[in-house]
Predict the structure.
Amino acid sequence: MLFSKKLKYSTLLALCYVMPFFLFAQKTNAQKTNDDLAKHINKIKIDELVMGTLSEVLDRFEKRYEIPFSFDRKALNKIKINERPFEARFDTYLETTLSEHRLKYVLYEGKIYVIPKSNTLEQVMRKEAVRNTHNKDTTNKAITEQIFKNVVPKKFNFTITGRVKDAETGETLPFSTVMIKGTTQGTTANADGYFILQNVPTDTSTIIGQYMGYKDLTIRLLPHLSNENIVLDLLPSSTIDEVIIEGERENLMQTNPQDISVIRLTPRSLERLPNVGEKDIMRSFQLMPGVSASNESSSGLYVRGGTPDQNLIVYDGFTVYHVDHLYGFFSAFNSNALKDVQLHKGGFDSRFGGRLASVTEITGKDGNQKQFNMGGDVSLLSMNVFAELPIGDKFTSVFAYRRSYKGFLYNSIMDKFNQNSSSSNSNQAQPTSLPNTNQTKATSYFYDLNGKMTYRFSDNHSLAWSIYNGTDKLDNSYKIETPSFLASQGANLDFSVGDLTRYGNVGTSLKWTQRWSPRFYGNVLLSYSNYYSKRDRTNNSTVTLSSGETRKVNFGTIEDNNLKDYSLKADYQYDIHTKHQLQFGAMLTNYDIKYSYSQNDTTTIISKDDQGKTYSFYLQDRIKLLDNKLQIIAGARSTYFDVTAQNYIEPRLNATYQLNKKITLKGAWGKYYQFANRVLREDILAGSRDFWVLSNGKNIPVSSSTHYIAGISHDTRDYLFSVEGYYKSLEGLSEYSLRFDGGGLNGVKYTENFFNGKGYSQGIELLAQKKGGKFNGWVSYTLGQVKHQFDVYGKNYFSAGNDVTHEFKAVGIYQWKRFDFSATWIYATGRPYTAPSGGYNIQLLDGTSQSYFSVSDKNALRLPDYHRLDLAMNYRLQNSEGSDIGYIGLSFFNVYNRTNTWYKQFQIIENNITSTNINYFGFLPNVTLSLKMR
Amino acid sequence: MPFILIIIFLLLFGSCTSSIRQEDFENIPVVEGYLRKGEPISIKISQQIPLDGNGAVHTLDNLTLVLYEDDARIELTSQGNGIYKSTSLVQENKTYKLSFEYNNKITTAETTIPSEPVDYEQSVTSIKGFNPNNLGMGGGFPSLTSVVLKWKNPNQGYYIVVIENVATTLELINTNSESNNLSRAFRISPTQGTSIEIRPMQFTYYGNHELRLYHVNSDYSALYNTGNNTSQNLYTPTTTITNGVGIFTGMSHKTLMLNVYK
């Protein structure tokens, strides 16, 4: 009951915010001061039946007790009251009653204003000022003038500061946009939602706050109100249906005209896209131009010819090294815990370093600041719950937990990946099969946990602790248990064939944010991130003899990779002038990377234990010139890497020029270095197939890249057209293979073979987006090329494994009543692959014969083209007041059941070479139910 | 304007994108030569199987094979079916160099014979076969003694153990086994360790078994790399052979005997 009641009032609250007119009741006796009024209502006792709409009730109070009220009549008409207070204090009664309906009263200039609880009177006034400015209805004019009597501007060319927040939860909205209406002048809030807008023409200017997935908020500055710490409280775009707000934008994806190669996604809107099992930020980025979409077995991002390890993933300040759940079918980030995600596809800022290709910056939710909230999703793959708990005004927290269960979808995915990994060699010693034994298969699962706690000492200082853990346990083991007839005889045998992979990432950060002044903002962050991957393929047998003696035997291989990253960093931002911003910072990272490969518990074949430190500093200057039309970001990053004892300087330059209101020209150039690399192990089919190593300056060089980017965008209210071209050089690339050889005849060792090479990547991306309206979406086309040259494969450049020539994507979302329909279609050129040119058989010492292949030119052939259509339909669940409380979603993956080839498998059967296609998923349906309190 | 750009880029890329084609099948020889210490030399030469082959293996006879044992030349004679033999016995620690001309190219290969295993020992000389269908009345499992093999390996060399039943008539341990034609031999993967344990349940047949411990070179170990048959990680195993594929490697072994009784 309480549940639905609260939801009902959230809608009311929303109405209070956005009603196109706000009726301030004009009443008499307005001359009393606030003190007098407070004393007056203090004395009143109420002892009567209170019945009717809240408007009627307040009207009655006004007459009976001579109190002037002001309120939104239309909104309060919707609230019904039926109570019988006995000898109650009027002020207490009024406070309690209003509070139940998420309202409050404020005394101002001898009047009681009834306003939404979450607003200040200033906020209401600023919003109303806008409405009244545009309102031709003169009936309210007198009231308007009474309240806003000093609308004549007093200040000119001054600075305002404030914060952008979610009106419902109080969550700050990072990187939101704040504009002065009617000009091109604006600013972007920082990661904590703080903004500073300088050179505001007058203190009666109109300000617009914008954030993806939220309705635009327009307020008017008022001379008699403070111009500091203005809170722009934006409403989620899905809040109500009845009122269509001008400027409303519900687009999923946003690109800022002044940014180069930056795409933003709002996690709260992702549910509208088709998904298999989970709404997924990484999969959604794969629908964008320049990000490859045809790799179903990796949720890591292949950005502009880069590999997933060249994409830096920063989650609340710490680096995440592993993003895959369930063989990479989707990512380990739970959208319910995320607030904002940005992808920098290239030419990124000096504040980021250590990666060659791109940056994914993820900001977790702080949690609802106003009230407790919880919710959850159930799909055919997993269950997902979250809770947001504020304590007092200063503490907020959010927790989200997701875990798979072994349903239809989970099993389908597991089976798909496992059927392919069984091609291991055959003639190893195997146990004699036991008759009548019970084979039990162990369980596999994944889970992830996100948590964040924030304590705000003041508006300007806060401390946030964030934790993340995503883990997969993939178990292909089976157990043979004692046959019952043996157990009854007192014997006990357990034989387990092990293939257990456990991998994941745990990370945590402690962030101290300071806003020393509106112009000077910074934070210090201490973080820890640990990537672990252990693959245990040992067979264990435990035998209990009739004598009672127990014996254990282990044999097999164990592979273990463990990366620890301890970092301390500080980032500062100083707004020197309206057109001049300085950013600077420092970062210290300590890497501790271990990798071991051992046999039979006893023999260690490879044991690597590398440590290294990087010390980085950066300085970056953002200048606006030519009447804000030209923006230049010039910066440099310097990193000292103690392993090579060298300093790496990364100069970067980025410029945008606004040709006119719609057309912007862009360009960027920059140098990038990478010190920790993820390498793919040869055994690509098995679960854990990658691991991290640290550059050593010898056989694993520090890799580097130079980016050149140029683009043009044409941005109108409803459409965006954008073209960007890029060229990247790549130096010091490493490829890895773990094989049984050492090259020499007698230097017999298992060694790591690193092959070094270089390459380049180039391409052009076209994007056309319809930004708003009932039907929105985008089409994109990418023409790309990635070439590598490794001496080991010859002197010629060959197409890299992730080279995709043409990639076309179309995303459409249509809203009809409470239904959201969406469709995505992807087309991509097939990936290159290497095929055998011939084959041969060799007899091994035990008499068995094994097939081998000699190989043609590397990646000389192409798999068939990839294409796929996904469809989804969501029905939004609403309470009686029209607020969204969740949805039921139907999603169809690969609707026309296209057979997309993942890779080919070759065999020699009876002296013929045969090739078999191993395919990606066919048609897969999914159902999701999502519910939340508010 | 975007379309103009597309066309420009298509032209640019079109000119440098190589056409998709399979490299011509390279007619290189396959060498299969195991030089076991103390045994006569025998080498087999054949042709690779082409992708579009007809299922036949073409052996290469009548080549002129030149083999040097250190600096001494050893004559090899063609026996047919691609096999070339010599009567001279392979010697420990000597280096053998092979060369021959085929298809206008000189194919070469080289190997050194590893030393014999040292201090090769077994924990027991006989074990009781494990037959899950035939356990003693009310007695639970028999003692299930394993055989542990040990040797010295100070230089982390590669060793492979092959266990082969040498009984004249084969007698299955698990008569209910559904498999037919089970192999007489099985192997333990290459190891750089100094011991292995073989359990009774690993044996298929009763009777005398040879426990052969081979000291091998790295190129032989490389043959045991598996999972190399997909387009994602296809590669040719490392070998000392140039202008050819296959294996040309030396090894020496010691043998112990084990009886698996009922």
Summary: Chain B touches chain A through 104 residues (CB under 8 Å). Chain B has two domains: 29-112, 118-232+251-261. Residues 2-16 of chain B form the longest helix (15 residues).
